[in-house]
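Blackboard transcription, Thursday session:
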Amino acid sequence: MSDRTLLHGLVAFGRALREQGVEVGPGRMVEAARALDAVGLRDRRDVYFALRQTLLAHRDELELFDGLFGGWGASGASSEPVARPVVETRREGRARSDGDRTPDGAQALGTSSLELLRRRDFATLDEAELAELRRLLLDLGRTRPRRRSRRLRPSPTGGTLDLRRVVRRSMRSGGELVELPMRARKVVPRKLVVLCDVSGSMAPYARALLLFLHATAQSGHVEAFAFGTRLARLTGDLATRDPEVALERVTSPVVDWGSGTRIGASLAQFNDEYGRRALSRGAVVVIASDGWERDDPALIGHEMARLARAAYAIVWVNPLKGTPGYEPLALGMRAALPYVDRFLPGHNLESLEGLAGVLVGIERRHAA
Amino acid sequence: MAFRTVDDVEAALRAADYLPDRGLATALFLATALEKPVLLEGEAGVGKTEAAKALARAQGARLIRLQCYEGLDVAHAVYEWNYTRQLLHIRAAQEGGVSEEELFGPAFLIRRPLLEAVEADEPVVLLVDEIDRADEEFEAFLLEILSDFQITIPELGTITARRRPVVVLTSNRTRELHDALKRRCLFHWIDHPSVEREVEIVELKVPGIADRLAREAAALVQGLRGLDLEKPPGVAETIDWAQALTALGIEEVDEEVVATTLGSLLKVRDDLDAVRDGRLGELVADARVAARG
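(Written on the board underneath:)
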């Protein structure tokens, strides 16, 4: 194989990888060419590993790579992309009727005291109560999880001794320690990523949760997404100051309101499009959903595992958990739970207050 | 020592008592040939750290190891001033006073692994172990160092490496690393070794072990890895276990022997219980058949 043919083959191979979603930039192609030059073309194993080690950066891509490599090299330049394994989808009827959550008319009529309002299921609130809720949520949203930054700054109240400053001051005073400069780690807000299920079964709760989100987003560092059968980024919309406008604009991009939920596929979309760009890294990720999945729940487990590797902690908010005697029987919910650090209800204001409290003090489950 | 081919690396590692598979040999060869850091990922116990140590032995290079952990900072990874000595020095020299140049000079500098690796005159293999345990801010910092092998100390100026160390990073994948860091590195995923290779490894590390026992041990461990265990045994566990069996004077495995010594292979209580109560007999029988075959 001449150098020229080889180079053409390599370029075609890189293109095939790109078509399958592997990020192969020009930098990597150059490295691959250098690597091939270094190992030589005598041993097919060396060619395989040289390409794999320079072109890939993720274990998940190995299978895909192997499929493509099998069709490459033998003929020099041709590379027939191997079709991606199609994720088997099963349609399952919803096992739950929505009838058991009809608003209780008698309750909604009475003027709600704050205490009552706090404990009322969001599905049962009327317009006036929702307005009151909005005000309360604004307060709630101002509390945020924090993390300690690696940067240290002078702190009169403690932390560790700032020895560099001790030495410098001692030079002036001839070795006498007149005062002890201290420094401590700065505390900065932790990134917060919120993924909110807005499908039919979640509609009454999604509204309250989005109000909560909107309030939270005012303090920055929050990325918000809505999902139903697909995922839409809401961060820009939540930046709008007026909650009503934000709410309206929040719901419109997710056009599939009421058409069933594809949680696994939405999480996959999040991991692919945003996780790669480190959006979820080190973040507290809040997922609000009842866990009713239209497709294969196995995908949820897989995508949750990916998410859990990047995130600092995962909080799952499920309004159904507020129902006495609730057990996570929904297959999607069960697939997700092993990766969830905190599992909370989210059906009334009281439980959202609980969520806010958890977000402030949350610790990583898998302390390294 | 520079390697000219992948075969060279394979031979040199073997001579250093490490049996690499072809992929790992290629990765380490490329790391030296292209002067790029190599990131080794894989389950715990597949020999990632050991590979870096063996490479250092094979090259006659000095191994400098930076063990990562959450909260690792510049003071522990790069350098720190020896404040105690500085203060004592100021007191001792009270009369004449001390100049800043003297106080913040090389004599008072504590060198940590990254600075050592950059300053070294001799060939160095720098092992950044379990990078996934460090904070992401540290990852970003490491990326800077790996791109130009320069370290700036405000009081002393910039120190540039005279020769680039071979850099090996390992990760157990407890979290995803930055793409930027991954782009900088060659990437190699290490799988558990094949049965044949594991037999070879056991025979190398447990001298005098009966061939049959080595094969049965390797086959049984392979069987265990096929189960859905929380912590499947790594190569180190296979070696420990084979050593224990040899020390006990055992020549072939049976269900009772395995049941009593299983603790050297499985370190998690749930895994132990699951295997003991479950398919142990079947596993042992399979391993014996495989070893004969």
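Lecturer's comment: The beta strands of chain A are 146-154, 160-161, 182-189, 192-197, 222-227, 231-233, 284-288, 313-317, 342-344.
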